[in-house]
Amino acid sequence: MKYLIKFYTFVIFSVIFSFNSYALEKIKIGLVIPLSGQNKELGESVLKSVRLAINDINDDRIQIIPRDNRDDPDQTLEVSRNLYDEGVKIIIGPIFKKNTIKLNQLNNDLTFLSFTNKISNSEKNIISAGVNSISQFNAIKKFQVLNKNERSFLFAPNTDILEEIKTGVKLSKIKLKDKFFYDPDPTLITKQIEDVTRYRVRKQNLADEIKRIENSNEINKEKKLAQLEKLDTIGGINFDSVIIADFEEDLKSVATSLIYTDIPPTRVTYITLNQWFDKSLINESMIQPIYFPSVNYENYKIYLNKYNKNFQNNSNQIAFLSYDVTGLIYYLLFQNNFDVDKEIFYKKNSFKGKTGVFEIDKNIITHQLNFYVIENQKIKKIF
Questions:
Q1: Measured between alpha carbons, how far is residue 64 from residues 12, 187, 363 in Å?
Q2: Are 40 and 152 in a shared domain?
Q3: Which residues does 207 contact at the CB level (< 8 Å), separation at least 6?
Q4: 244 and 273, same domain (yes or no)
Q5: Residue 362, pLDDT score
Q6: Are 85 and 106 a contacting pair, CB within 8 Å?
Q7: How confident is the model over 196-234, as pLDDT tens digits?
Q8: What b/e string do you get for 63-83 counting C-beta neighbours within 10 Å, with b at 16 or more?
Q9: Residue 21 counted as domain residue
């Protein structure tokens, strides 16, 4: 990776050359986030994180201009147009994909780095900087090889995230044994999983075998019956791992239903998507071990401590991403002699920030994620 550098090394390097021959003209970068309304707290956290990054970069040439989009597509369009009229060519934001739908009405030389992780149906001038499904399935592919999983079964909810999951599966070219898209209604999940895992067939197999042994004259008949009575089902399953593409309580519902159908994590490997180190999973000992890709955990904890020390409150995941997005923009500008050109987002480049290594190529950002397991109520790094 020719262009790979460490973020803090890069910051020190930039400070040393802060008085070099580059133009001292201010480079204006817009920040379009909700600073009012129900997502005001989220927007304010992103603003603080961006300012934290700018403080670490320590280059007076960079000027951040925040604007309130009120979490509304029309307001996003209006403030973005105003920023462009003020000479802004790069905008950090908006946070949610719904607020990008009208941005194709603006000039093509205005580039947005949105925090959404949704990559399907995106405009060419909108770069999705969230931890997308391609990045996550790429990491799962690596784990499959490491863990020798050759028959992974994908379980995904039939909701608005399904299209992104399908895109990630297709573009990552992950190897899957089968796919199952379930209704997320918690009252229906167990029945659906019973059907797809042939639970009732396996349950009946056990009952039939017990009856056969009872009616037989086999040696050690009582011992065999005692062993069978300890089982819930009999019969193989045709997958060695299950990828549960869900989150929070829905993830727990699916995992619990798998356990109920006699497919516990001791029998097949439980894998899921980026959970952002959800602390509630640590206490769910029944569904452990459970594996997942995510950003660099140690750096995440360091960032959270730094943010808390500076602002006396807690950051969120999107604000964490905004810290690295700010560093990425500065790095690309530095590489381009601080000439603001949208082509800098199309050239293949790698950058090492707090989240870990991520690449940008043809205005698509992919993260090289780490991999973790929650086991015995502890988070451990796999790679």
A1: 20, 48, 21
A2: no
A3: none
A4: yes
A5: 79
A6: no
A7: 999 999 999 999 999 999 999 998 999 999 999 999 999
A8: eebbbbbbbbbebbbebbeeb
A9: yes
- Alpha helix stretches (DSSP H) within the chain: 7-16, 40-57, 73-85, 133-147, 162-172, 186-196, 199-214, 221-228, 248-260, 279-282, 297-311, 317-335
Structure tokens at 369: 């994620």
Q: Is residue 2 part of a domain?
A: no
For 274, 352, 368, the CA distances from 143, given in Å and listed in that order, are 14, 21, 13
Tell me, yes or no, whether 139 and 274 share the same domain.
yes
Cα torsion 27, 361, 335, 47 to 10°: value is 40
**Structural domain containing residue 336:** 7-131+297-366
Give tens-digit pLDDT for 17-55.
444 434 468 999 999 999 999 999 999 999 999 999 999
Residue 6: DSSP 8-state? B
Domain count, the chain: 2
Q: Which amino acid is at 41?
A: E
DSSP-assigned beta bridge partners for residue 57: none
Question: Cα 203 to the chain's mean position, in Å?
Answer: 37
Does 1 fall in a domain? no
Q: How far apart are CA 139 and CA 367, in angstroms?
A: 9
Six-digit token string for 45: 């956290």
Residues 288 and 154 in one domain: yes
Give pTM, 2 decimals. 0.89
- What mean pLDDT, rounded, does the chain reach? 92
User: Partners of 293 in the beta sheet?
Assistant: 371
Q: How many residues does the chain have?
A: 383
φ, ψ at 65 (rounded to 5°): -115, 100
61 strand-pairing partners: none
**Res. 100: pLDDT tops 80:** yes
